[in-house]
Structure formats: C-alpha cells, structure tokens
Amino acid sequence: LAAVPGAPVRAVAAGRVSYAGRVAGRGVVAVALAGTSLRTTYEPVRAGVKAGAEVGAGEVVGTVEGAGSHCPETCVHWGLLDGETYLNPLGLLPPWLLGHGPSRLLPVLGVPVPSG
Hints:
- By secondary structure, the chain is mainly beta.
- 0% of the residues lie in helices and 39% in strands.
- A 6-stranded antiparallel sheet has the order 6-2-3-4-8-9, with no helix packed on it. The protein has a 3-stranded antiparallel sheet with strand order 1-7-5, with no helix packed on it.
- Strand 3 and strand 4 form a beta hairpin.
C-alpha cells in the first residue's frame, strides 16, 4: 500500500499486539485479532506499541519507515494470517471500500508482474 514516511499506521481491527520489533532489518507490528485465530501484520513500520498491548480498530500502532523496501515508492505491506496460512487482507474491509482502484500485493516469485 502506498504510504509516505512517518505516516501513521492504524490497526484494521481490535486485538492484542503479538509482535512489535524488527525482522530482517525492517520494523514489523503484528496484531492478533480479538475473538479470532487471525493476525494482521504491518511492515516496514516503526512500532508505537509494545507486544501485549490491546489496540482498538483504527488505533495507531506505529509509523511508516522510510526507504529500504523493494517497492519503488515508500509502502506498507499489510498481511493477514490464519495460523501460518496467508490470506487476502482485503477480506477484512467493508465492501464499500473495495473496487476503487488497484491494490498492490507482493508478487509471487516466478509470476511476471504486468506492466502499466
């Protein structure tokens, strides 16, 4: 997701911070969503919360870190996991928010990325 360095990153749903730290040199925040087996991840993010903290939907969990990502522009990678299985995080959004422009997900290795 396109973002500018220093922009706030907000939790998509209420939950408990399960991780806030660095992975492979990048800031990562993970939130275990309340009442589910799901967790969301946000990176590269400078954590503004600590592991174990309760967060509400829309609460700021950190700020976007600057350059160093593989994206041509600064971005935030938003993930959704059920256990160790990655899911499409767009499924968490209300339908009225979808369909208003392209979403950018990480490319699958070996699958060409369309130009334009």
